[in-house]
Amino acid sequence: MNLIVAQSGGPTSVINSSLAGVVDSGIDNDFEKIFVSMNGIEGIINENIKLVDTETFSKVNMTKKLKARPASILGSCRFKLDGDLDSPVYEKIFEVLKKNDIGLFVYIGGNDSMDTVKKLNSYIAYKNIEASGYEFRAIHIPKTIDNDLEGMDHSPGFGSAAKYIASTLRSLRCDVDIYDLESVTFVEIMGRHAGWLAASSLVANHNYHKDLVNLLYIPEDEMSIDKLLDDIREELKKEKNLLVAIAEGFRDTDGLLSEEVFANTKDGFNHPVVSGVGERLADLVRDRLDIKSRAVELNIVQRSNNLISETDSKEAYHLGYRAVELGTTRTNLVPVLRRKDSEDYEVYYTEVNPDEIANKEMKIPQEWLKDKKTLEEKIKAYTLPLIKGEVKQVYQDGMPVFVRIEDFTKDI
Q1: Cβ neighbours of residue 23 under 8 Å, at least 6 residues apart?
Q2: Helix and strand tally (H, E) in the chain?
Q3: Is residue 102 classed exposed, middle or buried when 0-12, 13-18 and 19+ CB atoms within 10 A define those classes?
Q4: Which of 14, 142, 196, 293 has the maximum number of C-beta atoms within 10 A of its C-beta?
């Protein structure tokens, strides 16, 4: 029985840590061959797959190198499998899988990748494939910087993105404070429907001599533009230079920031790609309050940077390792992590059926939104353990050097 692994959806800084866990577990669980599919499920459809050189992988400590490499080294896709199980795409997928004696498919991704795993398992049952003697299993490994996946305490990728955001805001604060005049700087942070990442900006206030982030606006807490401007007026009475964190998905009750204004395209799963709310608010503040205002959009660097949380990387690796262990005997599962109810931070690993968590969104609890103090206390306690430690990087000529796919795979 051989194993194939692929990555899909938006990348994270620790998605390759999960890949390393899959390969290590594949070796330890005696899979004869380990393949990687380039650009997600499309790599299987197009037969763009490579063979992992397991001897080299172990010999040069490729696990350590992959943990230090941000973004999806296998490439990605946003390919939505047809809902019709009689579609020829399924026949093509299983033709390629059978040709390479692949008995386990591990897919690292978000909600939409989970949908792919569910459909492959549905096809197995629909066609009664196992009756022909072909054993096949498909397992999903969760990831997303948005932290909006249900069924787990937090999503792999969130901790590193939160670490980057808090670190960047501390640097920005040094710049924001240099002039003795009133100013507002909006920092636009990813998060279409859930405000976890934007809220994590409040971690930057931890052990700081003042409120580094003055105001925060997230999708879970809509308000009018007038209320937002009033907030800014009040804060300016306390401090001249404001740093305002805002989620890309924040919407006002007046409709000035409606999705239609910002959605510039849609991805393969028909999700709107939104951005520009920070710039729009900076214009409004400049026009209505007549003070200096600007916007900084962190954009994709939040999800693919090399300031990687050691905690995040370790947890992503363990989920990858466990996925293969599950796949040796079971199918249609998602390994997840949950936080133990103890004084010190500790997690345990379990698994759920995709149907329990697919297409659901975990948002910030409403009780956390009582006031800024409550939210800050809750988000600090929740996020601080997730950003601890750093994955060591290798530098050459002053720049980071990352592993390449060619360093541990062969063409077939």
Answers
A1: 5, 34, 52, 54, 57, 62, 63
A2: 14, 16
A3: buried
A4: 14
**Tens of pLDDT, residues 367-405:** 999 998 999 999 999 999 999 999 999 999 999 999 999
- Kindly report whether the global pTM for this prediction surpasses the value 0.85: yes
Residue 74: what residue type? L
Tracing tokens 């214009």 back to the chain, one arrives at: 283
Beta bridge partners of 39: none
What confidence tens digit (pLDDT) does each residue in 224-252 have? 999 999 999 999 999 999 999 999 999 99
The first and second tokens of residue 289, run together, are: 């309050």
Q: Strand locations in 190-289, DSSP E?
A: 215-217, 241-247, 265-266, 272-273
Single-letter amino acid code for the residue at 41:
I
**Which amino acid would we find at residue 405?**
I
Q: Which residue among the candidates 24, 112, 115, 146 is catalytic per the annotation?
A: 146
Residues 6+ apart with CB under 8 A from 255: none
* Dist CA 238 CA 157 (whole Å): 35
